[in-house]
Amino acid sequence: MFLTARGAEGNIKFVIHPLLLPLVTSLSVIPFALAQSDVNPVNADAILKEIETIEQKQKQTLASAKNSTLSRLQTAASSGAAAAGFYTDAVEEVQFQGQKGKAEAFTDWKKQNGDLLRSKPMQTALMLHLRYAVLAVQRKGIEKPETLMPASEKYLSDLIAADDVFKDKPPQQALDLLTKPLGQSIMAQWLRLGDWLPDDKDFELTPGNVTGILNKNIRPFLREAKSPNLIQTWDLQMQIEADRITTGRSDHRADEFNTVTRPRLIFQRAKDMATIGQPNRAVSEIIVLVRTYPEHPDFRSWVAEVKNMVKPAASAPAPAETSPQ
Question: Which of 40-54, 213-227, 291-305 has the lowest mean pLDDT?
Answer without folding.
Answer: 40-54
